[in-house]
Amino acid sequence: MRFARFKRGMCLKTVDSCFQDLKDSRLVEETFTVDEVIDMLDGLQSVVHSEVESELINTTYTNVLLLRQLFSQAEKWYLKLQTDVSDLENRELLDQVAEFEKSEYTSSNKKVGFYFNQIIIKYHVEVFTNIFLFFNPKTVAHLQEENEKLKTRLRTIETQATAALDEKSKLEKSLRDLQMIQGDQKNNANQDITELENKVAALKSQFEKTLNDTTANQKFLEEDLVTTKHDLLKVQDQLSTAEKELEKKFQQTAAYRNMKEILTKKNEQIKDLRRRLSKYESED
């Protein structure tokens, strides 16, 4: 504030000296013609215009350098500052600054200066409190660690859902293959289908239990998921063997009906997995 006041005073003195120089150097006659007056005013206008323009440019550059220092210091504290240009035209704030300057240099209104200083102190306390709370390196590191944990959990659930979708695609492919089977159905056909259904149901139950235990014990989930995948491969291998054995045993209508039931159950499993995935995403 003192620096700006000093520069403003120097600029006004320069303008005053321009007028005084005109008075001393040109106004020596008692009468002047219109052309002489116009010439003197044009010369004065040129000098004053040059001085005022130079001072305005210098003030602008000074403000830019000051803002640059403030933003540089803010970056060291990981702050992102924003400016509100509308406040620059706020008449109430401008009047407060004018009152502050007046009380600062004339000491005629101590109350205004004290009020303005209180505002500045309160603002600084709030800023540095927010810096300590939200930009403390330990706090940032802790938040980053928690974020990584949540991302890991989300990737685990997404992997499980993808595996379930792959299993559904394989079962759909098996169903399309069974639709092409033609032959005679024998008495042990229903028994083979029942065994396959029981294995798939057991696999579904085990997989659901694994999903329920995800948040409690992730390591156990990963080990159980590997075991489940091995069991799934075994079931798929048995299913492939059964398809070859049933090639001459099943009739198309019976095979379609039974495998449709399996596919319906797997669709229910996929819906359940999606609901669980949505639940975990909402918690994150």
Automatic annotation (TrEMBL):
BP terms from Gene Ontology: negative regulation of protein localization to cilium
InterPro entries for the chain: LZTFL1
Q: What is its main location?
A: cytoplasm
Any single Gene Ontology cellular-component annotation: cytoplasm
Subcellular locations according to the entry: Cytoplasm
Give the residues annotated as coiled coil: 140-283
Q: How does it assemble?
A: Self-associates. Interacts with BBS9; the interaction mediates the association of LZTL1 with the BBsome complex and regulates BBSome ciliary trafficking.
Q: Which family does it belong to?
A: Belongs to the LZTFL1 family.
Q: Please give the PANTHER family that the UniProt record associates with this protein.
A: LEUCINE ZIPPER TRANSCRIPTION FACTOR LIKE (PTHR21635), LEUCINE ZIPPER TRANSCRIPTION FACTOR-LIKE PROTEIN 1 (PTHR21635:SF0)
This molecule's function is given as:
Regulates ciliary localization of the BBSome complex. Together with the BBSome complex, controls SMO ciliary trafficking and contributes to the sonic hedgehog (SHH) pathway regulation. May play a role in neurite outgrowth. May have tumor suppressor function.
* Name of the protein in its database record: Leucine zipper transcription factor-like protein 1
Q: Supply the source organism for this entry.
A: Catharus ustulatus
